[in-house]
Amino acid sequence: MSLEQAGLPGADQLPCALATVTPEGVLLAANPALGALLGRDTAACCGGPFDALLSTAGAVIYQSYLMPLLRLHGHLQEFSFSLRQADGQPLEVLLYASSRLVGTQRVHDLVMVPIRQRRRVEEEMLRVKRAADEAPGMIFQLLCLPDGGGHFPYVSEAVRVLYGSTPQAARASAEVVFGQVLADDRAALLRSRDAAAAASSTWRASARVARSDGQVAWHEFSASPRQLANGVTLWHGHVADVTQRRAMEQALADREAARQASQAKNEFLARVSHELRTPLNGILGFSHLLLSQGADNLRADQRRRLAIVQTAGQGLLHLINEVLDITSIEMGQLGLHAAPLPLDAAVDTALAVVEPQAAAAGVHLARGAMTGLTVQADARRLQQVLVNLLSNAIKYNHQGGRVDVRASAEADAAPGPALACIEVIDTGRGLTPAQQQQLFQPFNRLGVERDVVDGTGLGLVISRQLVQLMRGSLSVHSVPGQGSCFRVHLPLHRPLVAAPDPVAPVAAGAAPAAADQPSPTRGRVLYVEDNAVNVLLMEAIVGLRPGVHMQVCTDAASGLAAATAQPPDLLLLDMQLPDADGCDLLQRMRASPALASVPAVVVSAAARNDDLARARRAGFIGYWTKPLEVDEVLAGLDRLLAPAGQSPR
Amino acid sequence: MSIDVIQRHHATQRGQAHPPMVFAHGFGCDQQMWRFVAPAFEASHRVVLFDHIGCGKSDLTAYDPARHGRLEGYADDVVALLDGLDLRDVVFVGHSVSAMIGVLASIARPERFAQLVLVGPSPRYLNDPDTGYTGGFERADIDGLIDMMDTNMLGWADFLAPAVMGADSPAELTEELRASFCAADPAINRRFALATFLGDNRADLARVTVPTLILQCAHDAIAPCAVGDYLHAQVSGSRLQVLDVAGHCPHLTHPQLTIDALRDALAHG
User: Fold this and answer.
1) Half-sphere exposure of residue A259, counting CA atoms within 13 Å on the CB side?
2) Of A416, B58, B85, B137, which has the fewest beta carbons less than 10 angstroms from its beta carbon?
């Protein structure tokens, strides 16, 4: 049937495609323009299903929307739609449709116009719309009226996720967005917007928004204003959900604050400890001198009291050193110098230190075989660990008890280096599992378990950390009532001979010289120090070496002048002089040829590892820390000054 | 509870108290698609009509992108509806995608179903060369469909409504229509299209235990006969009835034929 026959005169001559379809979807008639558009003989299709002329997608739209709508409403306009060309390619058309009665039968007339040009524009618009919809965050156009009202002529799809709303709702009112902003932030947000509008500047602001799931999100608004007539402002901009970023920033800030607080605490502890050591220097030094030199003039009860002053001072010094160690370890400033160390000698030295304590407690010390092991460890720090363990084993023992110390090589535990295992075993009352757990907790230790004997203080905590810094481990095995066994595992040294550290602190391994024996040591010492107590103490100590003459200067300038005028045999320099730093002073002295090779020793309260390293670089060969150990100073003098009869230069 | 599901799905109930006949609309419009067919059963049945979430007058806030990204989510909605109304011995008539939604719901709650009537069903629209399955669609067809839907949304403020009525129609009528027939939230509709046309529920067919009638149009560009045959083979004990008509919506184009086929099915069931 032609369209003329179907009741549309002139349709065959129309310049647009035309088809008549029954409500059942059968193609009744088509004009030649449709045939030309599709490149096929449409007359042959008449009587068949209309959707045979459609692309697959077109058929879905036709069945799902077009036909139901047409069927129910009778007409349709500007419907985007696609046909199938003879070669199978889809052809985009714009469709207009209406229905009419032919006799008693209802038919639909469909007018179709190709939309290649419009299609290109639409594709471009689609691309932009999709980019806006898929982009993270919400892109918007916002229209603000002078009365404070407004709406979003455009928002991207993100409005659904960010505000639980729809673009349609946002078109009706801006409340869809601003109504979700928490009451506390809302006024400030709108004020910032209006201020940016008044200044014609970019609006940037953040606010908290109530999400539909009850959580609170942070949204960041940024937009540019354009002023229109009648006080209307048109905004173009973007909303980003910055909740995660905010949370991350907050977490970073919290962590940094915690780190700073911890750092401040450590620095405070370190500073206080240093400050405490200076007056202790006076107490310990003079009580020691009184006990060894002035003892004859004292009554027995005075000597006992003086001994108590001495013991109490040493206890305090020990505590301060422990706090310093802990803070240094926590601040990562405790550098160790691991070197090959024969265990026999190390254990013997430690046993010698605790021997008097064992004798007083009636505890027998038993040393097992060390099997000639050599470990890789820092000599001074391993000494500290061993003395701590032995001292505890004696302290927590009983009269007639024993302490066994022995060492063995562990079978190669793969992976990692071969290990030496040092065991300190006591016959004390042992530890419950709960006590074992608390044993290594830094700040739980102070002031607990003082019922029977002194608490272990921070010693074990420090010991474990020191051993760990030496790439070893410290563990405890104990059965209540049967004593405890503390095990130190340390890497075994592989026999590669290394030179001993030349700048190990003088105290390390220095054999104590008896203070009351006549000494052959001779020489001239220049001591630059501004603290009168320290000077008095040093004068008293040096006085024990009749062959040594000491000159004292109280600042760097006079020290430099004195040294230049008469070069000494030994320089003792305080680090913190009123007019200079000890290192700087030494540098200036070294500029003078006569002073270029005079041995120099630091005498200072500051003894952190970076201080030691700095002093070493500056050319000091020793570092005596306050409070001064009388025996240590004397041994140093003996070593650094030439014995009588031998000219130092 | 039942009030809730009624509002959520804009469910309407007419006719008798029992037994229930539930009509489910396919992809595209809403429950009004059944208006030429459903009234014929009010004399004998409790006729229940509803809109899928995101379609018609359903509660758009009940739309959950994750739940409704798959047909299983729509099937959960149907189960909640049947549970909420406490319907038993249900004759479920599902068109197009709702045929598969009904299949999934019957697997979840077989005890509530008396019969499934699947009008123009398809378990998978895409062809599957690996198994030799013919669904009728290529991936490019789906992309073309999404493009066309986007274009139609782009041209007008809201999907279709103003264009249907024409520019000279009274505004209040447009507004009323906007809220009902074939009006849908564009983003939801697009996701529904993807869930429908990219889904593959072939494996579920063997799990159907409810007596099933397949109503197949002889010339259907969307669910061709090969698909109806496939379903018939996979759903054990199913009956296949071919309507000698063109198109995909016999309930719209050939309502009397559809009513007769349903009556026949009820007699068999």
Assistant:
1) 8
2) A416
